[in-house]
Amino acid sequence: MPLQILLVEDNPGDRRLTQEAFRDINPLIRVYVAHDGAEAMAFLRHEGAQAAAPRPDLILLDLNMPKMDGRDVLARIKEDEDLEDIPTIVLTSSEAEADIVKSYQLGANCYLCKPMHFDAFYSLMKSLNDFWLTRVKLHADDREVGQKASLGRGLPTAETNFSP
Amino acid sequence: MRAIGGSSGLIRVLLVEDSPGDIQLTQEAFRDANSSVQLHVVSDGAEAMAFLMHEGAHADAPRPDLILLDLNLPRMDGREVLAHIKQNEHLKTIPTVILTTSEGEMDIAKSYQLHANCYLSKPVQLAAFESLVKSINDFWLTKVRLPPREMNSAGVSRNRRQ
Predict the structure, then answer these.
(1) Which terminus of chain B has fewer CB atoms gathered within 10 Å of its CB, N or C?
(2) Average pLDDT of every residue of chain B
(3) pLDDT value, residue B162
(4) For B120-129, which contacts have Cβ atoms below 8 Å and span 24 or more sequence positions?
């Protein structure tokens, strides 16, 4: 059963790099994209146009974004009983210690800095896949629920941008 | 490679594990994977909390950079230790990795609810166990940005780790 990642990222270049990296590294992964924090929360709470959104197995969350920033999204995820158990990985260009500390305080599962160069970025995504999507035990019940929901509601089976 | 672990260059890992065999395997695997890892071992949950709270014989215990926590432990079990860590303002930022033989769905779900940073199940085979420890080293101690060790009340570090 395909693993589902929600990528929350406002930078089009980084979105594309991440999607292409995962397509190459692990074609079984389905990457959904939210372009800002507000879209991410709508996706996770099945609001509005996202009523049929599946529950992701993993969230990749940028920090600096328009509308609602990643710190705010992280706080909402980790304070929500229905969402707090979804592993949420901060993936940001910020190397500021205050951002690292704050993210762990808010319950980030881990904090990764986006490397500037493509090769290093690809290597980081490969490590993320090898560890989080291969070694780590994710919550299988949720995955089944999400999968059933996505099949039942006829969501696209290809890698999907859930919003334009 | 990016230096972590402050001026000593050592990365401190606290292993909370009651099985002597698993302790030895983990020690040996880290020795092979990364000579900069300083592994501290406690064998039950109560001792883990004493270590983290600098109590009794652990008054001088250092703050670990990463915690590897078994679930089924004598005296205080790993779920309770995890809850204590993640409810403590000073300790909650320390990444806490569950490392257990349990593959029970309830244990996985409960651990994430208690804000475990990730959940790993111990393989039975020796080679697979060594490979898992290497993967913990390669990801958590190489790729991940760990929080700084010393923080003032504003959450800003006094000692930079680099």
Answers:
(1) N
(2) 90
(3) 35
(4) B120/A135, B120/A136, B120/A137, B121/A137, B122/B22, B126/B25, B129/B25, B129/B29
B156 → closest Cβ in A85, A98, A110: A98
Which residues of chain B does A98 touch, with a Cβ-Cβ cutoff of 8 Å? 155-156
Nearest to A94 by CA among A73, A65, A67, A120: A65
Q: Please identify which residue in the block is written with the tokens 């800002």.
A: A36
- Kindly report, residue by residue over A6-60, the tens digit of the pLDDT: 999 999 999 999 999 999 999 999 999 999 999 999 999 999 999 999 999 999 9
Give the closest of A104, A131, A136 to B147, CB-based: A104
Q: Could B108 and A137 be called an inter-chain contact, meaning their C-beta atoms sit closer than 8 Å?
A: yes
Of the partner residues B93, B118, B156, the one whose CB lies closest to the CB of residue A87:
B118
- B78 token code pair: 């790993």
- pTM (2 decimals)? 0.88
Domain coverage including residue B70:
6-143
CATH number for domain A4-152, candidates 3.40.50.2300, 3.30.420.10, 3.50.50.60, 1.20.120.80: 3.40.50.2300
- Nearest CA-CA distance, residue A36 and chain B, Å: 23
- Taking chain A, what is the end-to-end CA distance rounded to the nearest angstrom? 26
Q: Testing the interface with B: which of A59, A85, A92 to mutate, by most B Cβ within 10 A?
A: A85
Distance from CA of A164 to the nearest CA of B (A): 32
Number of structural domains chain B divides into: 1
Assembly ipTM: 0.88
For residue B151, the model assigns a pLDDT of 56
pLDDT confidence tier of residue B22, bands split at 50, 70 and 90: very high
